[in-house]
Amino acid sequence: MIFVITVLAACNQNKIQTGDIVFRSVINTELSEAINEVTQTAKKSNYTHIGVCEVLNNIVYVYHSDSDTGVVKETIEEFYTSEKNDYLVDLFRVKNISNLQIQQALQKAKTLVGQPYNFTYILEDEGYYCSEYIYEVFKNDSVFTLEPMTFKNPKTKTFHQGWIKHYNNLGIPIPEAKLGCNPNGMANNNRLEFMGAIK
Question: According to the lineage, what is the superkingdom (predicted)?
Answer without folding.
Answer: Bacteria
